[in-house]
Amino acid sequence: MSLIWSSESEIIAAGYDCEAFKFNGNEGGWSLTGTMEAKGRPGMGGAREESALNMFKQMDLRGKMTDDTKLKTVHQNTISTIRTFESSGPNVTKFSTSGVDGRVVIWTI
């Protein structure tokens, strides 16, 4: 639905999903390089797994249910707009996204 050029060879695009994606390329073609969400950070897998294990243990002890309706993304519904927020020369350093969920998020590249 929306995209920005963050540099000469990079596009950040979003729409019809809850995440913003980064594409790199040139006249030879474009490829998806990843998402802007921090969930894919290296070294976080073990901490998340331990946290999830503790959460389930606590639920079992207290007999509570989890709220499975919350997504693991910042936006909880479709991102509709991306805009440049801050730039340094020709390169974008920060951008904002707004979504159907009513959130406005500022991202650092």
Helix run count: 1
Shape: elongated
* Averaged pLDDT: 83
Kindly, what is the distance between the CA atoms of the first and last residues, rounded to a whole number of angstroms?
20 Å
Proportion in β-strands: 35-45%
Point out poorly predicted stretches: 40-49
User: How many discrete structural domains?
Assistant: 1
Q: Give, in order, the helices and strands.
A: EEEEHEEE
Trace the largest sheet across and list its strands. 1-2-3-4
Task: Tell me about the largest β-sheet.
Answer: 4 strands, antiparallel
**What radius of gyration results from the CA coordinates?**
17 Å
Helix content: 10-25%
Give the structural class: alpha+beta
E-strand count: 7
Characterise this structure.
The chain is built from one helix and seven strands, in the order ββββαβββ. The two termini are 20 Å apart. Helices cover 17% and strands 45% of the residues. A four-stranded antiparallel beta sheet has the order 1-2-3-4, with no helix packed on it. It has one helix at residues 45-62, and strands at 2-7, 10-14, 20-26, 29-35, 79-88, 91-99, 104-108. The chain has one domain (2-108). A hairpin with a 2-residue loop joins strand 3 and strand 4 (29-35). The chain is of the alpha+beta class.
Would you kindly provide a brief summary of this structure?
The chain is of the alpha+beta class. Helix content is 17%, strand content 45%. It has one domain.
